[in-house]
Specification:
By secondary structure, the chain is α/β, with parallel strands linked by helices. The chain has nine helices and twelve strands.
Length: 297
Amino acid sequence: MLDVRRMQVLRAVVTSGSVTAAAANLGYTPSAVSQQVAALEKQAGTALLERVGRGVQPTAAGRLLTEHAAIISKNLAKAETALADLREGRTGRLSIRYFATAGATLVAPALAGLRREFPGVRVDLKLIDPDDPLPEVKQGRADLAVVVHPRDRPRDDIRLVHLLDDPYRAVLPKGHRLAAKRVLDLADLADEPWVGNEWPVGPCLEIVLDACAAAGFTPDFVVESEDYATAQGFVAAGLGISLMPLIGLGNRHPGVVVRKVRGPEPVRGIYAAVRETSLPQPALRGLIDALRDAAGE
């Protein structure tokens, strides 16, 4: 196999016109340059230089390797520039996973901010719902996932960055007997028919069930749905009441009223999950900052 470093020495000799001039330019001794060329000729199996007067000129083989040495040098410079751009966050790719209600509220404005700061970074964005996005980060398929705080403690190599606390609200049909109250005790809803809004069961439903258990009852789900918009439609039709997180109520059905709850007030913590080894990436840190800004707004 040809030695790339020796090819660059050959290129220096050819472009300088002599071994002595190349040695001066490279900071080597003439003897060291001659040894490098001789070793390259042994690898190539043919002569690479021939004497002309006091200087040298390349043979056909020497000219060929000199041309390829120039190409290698150019490509190496490009690689070094590309690596520096990646290291500084000017280029690269980020894989992001999120759940539905975090999309418009957190992810969309955060990506707009990321694009302004890191326009050369490509984003692989994927909705993981109703499944938990955290395993995508654990298994290395994603750089960041927006998650509801898991019940189980994440692995030590996973960092959870708090973004916001999202309180749940009671959603009632207009004209409901409890609609006149501004704040409801959770126990007030114990005997009501309930409309589910998460299927299959995930961390958001577990938060509701835990809060109801703390208030001394288990909700009676008479209707199940997979999203908040559909659940609001069922509530508006008078089929039951529901608890929904605040950021899931951005588009409210005209046939429902929304009230605070207490005793206890269910709250879901929303986090950015990243691997500790990924945190040095400037673009990833920029994305986390953008998510925090979006959460603050």
